Amino acid sequence: MSTAKTNLIGLSRDELAAFLTQMGEKPFRAKQLWHWIYFRGETDFSRMTTLAKDFRIRLAETCSLERPGVTTELRSEDKSRKWLLKFDQGHEAECVFIPEDDRGALCVSSQVGCTLTCKFCHTGTQLFVRNLSAAEIVGQVMVARDSYGEWPAPAGDRLLSNIVVMGMGEPLMNYDEVAKALHIIMDGEGIAISKRKITLSTSGVVPLIRRCGEELGVKLAISLHAVTDELRNEIMPINRKYPLKELLAACREYPGADNARRITFEYVMLKDINDSPADARALAKLVRGIPAKFNLIPFNPWPGAIYECSTPQAMRRFSGILNDAGYSAPIRQPRGRDIMAACGQLRSATERERLSRHKARIAEGVEDNH
Ligand code: SAH
Ligand code: SF4
Fold first, then answer.
1. Are residues 315 and 204 in the same domain?
2. Cα separation, 281 vs 262, whole angstroms
3. Which of 108, 163, 226, 325 is most exposed by smallest CB count within 10 Å?
4. Whose CA is nearest to atom 6 of ligand 2?
5. Number of domains in the chain
6. pLDDT tens digits, 158-176
7. Which regions of the chain are under pLDDT 70?
């Protein structure tokens, strides 16, 4: 990696203009450069033919357009793709693309690990490492666009049409970098994915939900997963700080939520923990008055998990009760099972493999055990 060069990816428009001014260029050059970087996805300054040649040379000497490194790219039979990406200092996080019939959503990570230790979540059991920077968050979208060859891509005719901030990490615990990245991604002269096509998923960092609505206006998904504070405190420790009442009040006030832009309540189906008909009825009651829909997520087991996934019958019954109460409540179909699309699994599988290789080498006496 070139440490001396400035990575232009992840700079806001204003920062890019200021940087060019420092280089002695006119600020309007930022607009041209932005177009090359984020609309055309150009990675080579020398091919930015609308820029003066000597400017291109100076850019190449001092700047980079660096994407995260790709440790692994997996392609599923169902056309999902998943990347294990390598960031500065060798930190890794995942990014997965799930195609739908006429579009597709890229699930991006916001942190390496997570501080919030939800009991059912594999990421929550891994050590928190660090926040991802705006460059690293935007970089995930760029890697995916590179992989699908979607530069430039007319809006409405692209596979990568939606973004869900639902990968590793809690986006609202890294609000500033996530917000900066989303502003870049939403910019109409670049990647141009509109706020209507972006969903941010949070476990409920209440004070930042409002800011997210006012400043970003993206769609909201709430990881609810329990209908009582008692259970939610146990499986999602953040609930002790921001209990259900406060969380639901923030949802009621979320700017821009209406019938066309409902709040998605995610509900992970845990066998005999939160999946009874009484839970389903309580859930419908809890969200009354909020423009809501549900996403029932079959629990994805991981080694050492203390939960099991609800039975198909229990999930269908749960979904049916929500439907009868007037809510859409599909059971999320496992996609990309063959590429381990669930949160955190690829990273830990890779780590396990490394560890076993490491142990094998120690056994062979090739490597010291440190
Ligand atoms: N931190 C954010 C976004 C990342 S988690 C949040 O919690 O919303 C994305 C979604 O995956 C959340 O709804 C989370 O609860 C869910 N999830 C985590 N571990 C899971 C597992 N093992 N099986 C199914 N869903 C899981
Ligand atoms: Fe963090 Fe979300 Fe996992 Fe909870 S579910 S530990 S908030 S990534």
1. yes
2. 19
3. 325
4. 124
5. 2
6. 889 999 999 899 999 999 9
7. 1-3, 153-155, 334-370
Q: Which ligand is nearest to the CA of 170?
A: 1
Structural domain includes residue 106 = yes
Are the C-beta atoms of 259 and 298 separated by less than 8 Å?
no
Residue 230 within a domain: yes
Q: Are strands 92-99 and 81-86 parallel, antiparallel or unpaired?
A: antiparallel
Looking at ligand 1, which residue's alpha carbon is closest to its atom 26?
A: 121
**Residues 3, 103: Cα–Cα separation, whole Å:** 37
Retrieve residue 358's tokens.
């490491």
Q: Model-level pTM?
A: 0.91
CA of 343 from ligand 1 middle (Å) equals: 7
- Judge if 114 and 223 occupy the same domain: yes
The two most distant CA atoms of the chain are separated, in Å, by 70
Ligand 1 atom nearest 221 alpha carbon: 8
Q: Which residue has the tokens 């939960």?
A: 307
195 & 329 share domain: yes
Is the shortest distance between the CB of 94 and ligand 2 below 6 Å? no
Q: pLDDT tens-digit profile of 286-297?
A: 999 999 999 999
Residue 38 domain boundaries: 6-64
Tell whether 242 and 168 lie within a shared domain. yes
Same domain, 109 and 123: yes
Which of 25, 94, 136, 266 is the catalytic position? 94
**103/203 same-domain check:** yes
* Pocket lined around ligand 1, Cβ cut-off 6 Å: 120-122, 166, 170, 201-203, 223, 266, 268, 297, 299-300, 302, 342-343
